[in-house]
Amino acid sequence: MSHNFAVIIQKEDDWYVARCAGNNVASQGKTLEESIENLREAVELYYEGDQVPTDAAPVFVSMMEVRV
Predict the structure, then answer these.
(1) Within a domain: residue 60?
(2) Domain for residue 14, yes or no?
(3) pLDDT tens across 6-51, in order?
(4) CA angle 41–5–46, rounded 5-degree value
(5) Which of 35, 38, 46, 64 could link 16 by a cystine bridge, Cβ 3.0 to 4.6 Å?
């Protein structure tokens, strides 16, 4: 069975850090594709043997401007 997860990716130095917003599982890679593939593997391991919750709260991602 497949599930969809909201993923946030940030560039940190020479790495792309991918984080699953619903469960805070994270991974990294040298490319966007590698970071997503590594995160996919990490999420599969995280839920290995456990059932994925179906009542997860929706995730919203937004930008905001802050004057500093």
Answers:
(1) no
(2) yes
(3) 899 999 999 999 999 888 899 999 999 999 999 999 999 999 987 7
(4) 40
(5) 35
